[in-house]
Amino acid sequence: MVRGLAGMAGVAQSVQASSVGAQLPPEFARSDSEHDQNQAGAAPPEIPVIDMSLSCYGARMAEAAREWGIFQVVNHGVPPSAVSELQRVGREFFALPQAEKQRYAMDPSSGKTEGYGSTMQRGGNQKTWADFLFHNIAPPSAVNHAVWPENPEGYREANEAYCGHMRRLTRTLFEVLSAGLGLQEGAMAEAFGGDEVVFLHKINFYPPCPQPELALGVAPHTDLSALTVLVPNEVPGLQVSRDGRWCDVEYMPGALIVHIGDQIEILSNGRYKAVLHRTTVSKEKTRMSWPVFVEPPTELVVGPHPRLITGECPAKYKAMKFKDYKYGKINKLLQ
Ligand SMILES: O=C(O)CCC(=O)C(=O)O
Ligand SMILES: [Fe+2]
Fold it and tell me: Which superkingdom is the protein from (predicted)?
C-alpha cells in the first residue's frame, strides 16, 4: 500500500500562481502507476451512505468502516448554516491577494507545520495541484491564533462554531465505532486522549488545471489521523481505492464524508481499514474541500486495543507515540 502523506511538506509558491499556461508544468505530472486503473465493465460500487437518524445505523457504520474505511453521513446534526459559513470564509481566504495569504506561509523545515502552503510530495520531485491552509482548532492548548487568517471577516467565528459541531459528531462516531468492535462506548475516545484529542482543520484549494488527466490534487495516501470528517464543494474529485480500481465519491449536498485514518486501523488491530484515497483535478472548475483531522495528542501512545489482541489475532501493529508515527510516516520510515 502506498502510504504517502497529504500536504505536510509545504512550499510557499502557490499552485494558483502556476495555473495560467495551457500545459501542465512537468513537475506536476503523475507517475505511470497513478494513471487510471479504472477498467471497463461493471459499474464501480458506491461508497456507503449512513443516515444517522435511523435507529439501526450503528451496525451499518461499523460495516462500512470494516469494508470501505470511508462513508458519507446524512442527518448528522451539523447545521447547514455552520457548514456554509465555514465554506464561505475558506473561499474568501483563497480569493485574497497572494501576498496576504503568504503572510501565513507554513515552513515545516523550521517546525512551522501550520499555515498556508502548496503540496510537494514524494521526495520533492512531483508536485500536486493543490494549495492549502492548515491549523488546529481544538483543544485550546493546541490552538495558535496567530496562524488563523485575520481576513475574511468572520473567519474565527466560523471555525469555532464548526469545531463545536465536530467535537459533538466525533464523540458519537467514536462511540458507535467502539461498540462495533465490541468495546465499551467510551473506549475509542479514551484511547485517543479524551478531551485532549486534537482537531486539525485543513482547507484544500485545487484551481483549474490545464491538463487535469496528467495531474493529481492529492497523491494516494491514507490519513494519519484517527478519523477525518470532510466537507467537499460540488466539484467531484475525491476517489477511493477499492479492489484495484479508483471509485469516485459522489457529491451529496449536505452530506459529510468520514474517512477512517491510520490510528483507528491500529487501535482496532486491523478490523477497521484506513481508506486509501486521492483527488483528481478539473480543467475548468475550482475544487475545494474542508477536512478536519481528528488526531491523538502528540505524546499519546497508540497501539492495538488490548481487548482486540487474542491468540488467534495477535497484535498486527507496534504501539508508539503519535508524534513518532507521524514523523515516521512523513519521512517514509514506516513500512
Ligand atoms: O480534497 C479531498 O477530498 C481529499 C483531501 C485529502 O485527502 C487530504 O487533504 O488528506
Ligand atoms: Fe486525505
Answer: Eukaryota
Ligand 1 atom having least distance to the Cα of 237: 3
Among residues 211, 210, 208, which one has the least CA distance to residue 21?
210
**Closest C-alpha to ligand 1, atom 8:** 6
The pTM (predicted TM-score) of the whole model is 0.91
Residues marked active site are found at 202, 221, 223, 277
Whole-Å CA distances, 140 to 103, 147, 188, 290: 23, 14, 21, 20
Cβ atoms of residues 224 and 263 within 8 Å: yes
pLDDT of the residue at 223: 98
Whether the ω angle into residue 139 lies within 30 degrees of 0, i.e. cis, is yes
Triad 19, 202, 3: Cα angle to 5°: 85
Contact 33, 4 (CB under 8 A): no
Q: What are the tens digits of pLDDT across the range 303-321? A: 999 999 999 999 999 999 9
CA 322 to chain centre: 16
Give the cell for residue 24: 501542465
Please give the Cα distance from 257 to 241 (Å, whole number): 15
**Which contiguous run of DSSP H or E holds residue 324?**
helix 322-330
Inter-axis angle of helices 80-94 and 155-179, to 10 degrees? 130
Grade residue 72 by pLDDT with cuts at 50, 70 and 90: very high
Q: Is the dihedral of CA 217, 223, 224, 230 positive or negative?
A: positive
> Ligand 1: residues within 6 Å at CB?
6-7, 202, 204, 218, 223, 230, 232, 238, 277, 279, 289, 291
* Nearest ligand to the C-alpha atom of residue 222: 2
Comparing 175-179, 208-212, 233-237, 313-317, which segment has the lowest mean pLDDT? 208-212
- The DSSP code sequence of 215-242 is --SEEEE--SSSEEEEEE-SS--EEEEE
